[in-house]
Amino acid sequence: MTFSLASHVTSTETDTGMVLLDERTGRYWQLNDTGALVLRCLLAGGTVGSAASALRERFAGAPEAATADVEKLVDALRAAKMVAS
Hints:
This protein is an alpha+beta fold. The strands form two sheets. The chain has a three-stranded antiparallel β-sheet. The chain has a two-stranded antiparallel ribbon with strand order 1-5. A hairpin with a 5-residue loop joins strand 3 and strand 4. Helix 1 runs antiparallel to helix 2. The radius of gyration is 12 Å and the shape is globular. This is Coenzyme PQQ synthesis protein D (PqqD). It holds the Pfam family PqqD.
């Protein structure tokens, strides 16, 4: 599955992660460094599995927990209509 930011969303890297702005509503999401790592991986053509692998490489943790964390972020971004996939 290919991920992209929704057409009405812009992103900006910050010192601590990334900010996503919904230009239609003026609402924004602030992602910490971990969330930004996941989103960058997905936007670069990665899958949920490869994003979870990137998390496991950076932080020690169970594969199931990393996958669940990525899926939770993806579900939240979809619900907020910040990404298209």
